[in-house]
Specification:
Elements: H1 10-23, E1 28-34, H2 35-43, H3 46-49, E2 54-61, H4 63-66, H5 69-79, E3 84-88, H6 102-107, E4 111-114, H7 118-127, E5 132-139, H8 144-157, E6 162-169, H9 171-180, E7 188-192, H10 193-199, H11 205-211, E8 215-218, H12 222-238, E9 243-245, H13 257-266, E10 267-274, E11 278-287, H14 296-299, H15 315-319, H16 351-358
């Protein structure tokens, strides 16, 4: 299959790993931003192919994982109301809130439905005019344009029983927060390929100027990631800090301009709280006042809900690249995909879920290289 088989070629992958080993002269800590990249690293054992001097840590690039506890509680509170149909992607149903999750709300009689796109939520609203249909919209810049289009269409149609609980987050501010932390260990980033397909990679140039840390936009197949790592190592060894694009078959410098236009039409930048990390200025997207009649947060008056994280979950440190999932004493014991303490064990893109699925020999508290 074009753009699949060649990017999983074992001979090419081993050659890239050998070239990385030849170029490394000192230890480097690299972070892949996207949760999809994390799962590829674990599934194909790419981190184990790398020389001892290269340590891969895992960033806050799982949209389910970084959705704040308050937002989960808002969705649960809204879904529990009579006359409401809450529509969500499947991953969100098992994410624990303060006391329960959406799966249990549905089991207890709440009308919680799983869809694969926001347009399905619009169809549900059209077919059920006597119910308030709320779409739980999470994600990075990748999914935001489609969600923006759903709100735009609802306004155009006058679909008064449709609204959206929006919890979109933006990658560059999160990277800036990580790099600005006194605990930061990251010396180079594999940029999120899907996000950059929408937004391009021009906005990462200001991070380079401020922090002098190289960024290579990477794809999601094994060869993609090994090539991105090689490009990062080359920059680091040469003392350079630039934005480079490995994922040229999908990403352009400017990105998808029509998608960016609909984003700007419906959403505006806002401060956002990230689960386990805390508040990051200008790191989210809220529905603009012009579309306020479709903002579930305003309609259901859930703006002021707050919640505290479980003290047993170290997801905050995992998402910042400070620890690995196996550093957690609850990993695989008190925290499993069936009974998660934190979102990274639930999501199909979560780092903890990746370790649990692909590294079954790992045990809680074993640490990592």
């Amino acid at each position: 299959m074009k753009y699949l088989d060649e990017y999983r070629d074992g001979t090419i992958a081993r050659g890239l790993a050998a070239e990385i080993a030849r170029r490394v002269t000192r230890p480097w800590v690299l972070m892949e931003i996207c949760g999809g990249q994390t799962h590829t690293l674990m599934r194909f054992g790419i981190d184990e192919m790398l020389p001892p001097g290269i340590e891969m840590v895992h960033g806050p690039g799982c949209p389910v994982c970084v959705t704040s506890l308050e937002t989960i509680d808002k969705a649960i509170e809204i879904a529990s109301r009579p006359g409401v149909t809450l529509v969500s992607y499947g991953d969100m149903l098992r994410v624990p809130g303060s006391r329960t999750d959406l799966f249990h709300v549905r089991a207890n009689g709440g009308d919680v439905r799983i869809v694969y796109s926001p347009t399905e939520a619009l169809k549900i609203a059209r077919a059920n005019p006597l119910r308030q249909v709320v779409f739980f919209a999470v994600g990075f810049e990748t999914t935001a344009p489609a969600n923006a289009m759903a709100v735009w269409l609802a306004k155009r149609e006058g679909l008064a029983n449709f609204s959206m609980l929006a919890s979109h987050v933006l990658v560059p501010p999160a990277m800036s927060a990580l790099l600005g932390s006194p605990r930061n260990r990251v010396q180079g980033f594999i940029g999120p390929g899907h996000v950059c397909t929408v937004m391009g990679y021009h906005e990462y140039e200001q991070l380079i100027r401020k922090f002098r840390v190289p960024i290579v936009v990477g794809g999601f197949e094994p060869v993609d990631l090994l090539e991105a790592i090689l490009m990062l190592v080359t920059q680091l060894e040469q003392g350079r800090a630039e934005v480079e694009n490995q994922y040229v078959r999908s990403v352009s410098y400017a990105g998808n301009l029509p998608a960016q236009k609909i984003l700007a039409e419906v959403f505006e930048v806002c401060d956002r709280k990230w689960r386990g990390i805390g508040g990051i200025p200008e790191s989210g997207l809220n529905i603009r006042a012009e579309y306020a009649e479709f903002d579930a947060d305003r309609i259901f008056h859930t703006e002021k809900l707050s919640a505290e994280e479980s003290p047993d979950c170290i997801s905050a440190e995992v998402l910042q690249g400070l620890k690995k999932p196996v550093d957690c004493t609850a990993f695989g014991v008190r925290c499993t995909p069936e009974n998660p303490l934190g979102a990274p064990m639930v999501s199909s893109e979560g780092a903890c879920a990746a370790y649990y699925r692909y590294r079954r020999h790992a045990v809680a508290g074993s640490g990592s290289r």
